[in-house]
Amino acid sequence: MPRRFVRTTEDFECLVCRTPVRGNGYTNHCPCCLWSRHVDVNPGDRAAGCHGAMRPVAVETGPHDIVLTHRCETCGHQRRNRTSPADDIDMIIEVSAAGWDGGGVPIPPGAREESEGGLRGSAVRGRDRGSGARRRPGRPR
To answer: pLDDT by residue (tens digit) across 125-135?
Structure first.
C-alpha cells in the first residue's frame, strides 16, 4: 500500500503575489496571501494534473491549530491545510471574515446578518461549547 504523505521539500514562487517561498517539506501555500496550487492528489506526491490556483475560502479553528480550506479555481477540488506560524495572521482574519456557505463559495458581505452577538454565518468554525445557554435540568450531557 502506498504512503499517503510524502514530505517534499521545495521552494516555489507564489502564483498570485509572486512572493518567493522557502519550503520545509510541509509548506503548501504562500504565507503572505495564503493561496496554494493544485499539485497533489495525496500530500507531497505531486500527482495532480490540474495545477490550478487554489483560493483560500474558509478558516476553521481548533484547540491546537488553525486550518485553511483551499478551493481550486480550475476544477473545484477542495483541500484542508494547517496554517504555519509564518502565515500572515491578517490574511487569515480576512479569509475568515469573508464568510463561507459550506459549499466552497464565499458568502457575499451583504448576505450576512448582524446580531447583538456579532456576525452570524462567519467562516470561523470552532469547536466551541455551544451557545452558553443554561442546560435544562434532568437532561444528560
So the answer is: 444 455 555 66
Taking CA atoms, 140 is separated from 45, 60, 128, 132, in Å, by 46, 28, 19, 16
Residue with cell 447583538: 116
Q: Within its chain, how far is the Cα of 2 from the centroid?
A: 26
Amino acid, single-letter form, for residue 66:
I
The residue assigned the cell 483541500 is 79
Euclidean distance between CA atoms 33 and 85, whole angstroms: 14
Q: How many CA atoms lie within 13 A of 138 on its CB side?
A: 0
pTM of the model: 0.65
Q: pLDDT band for position 124 (50/70/90)?
A: very low
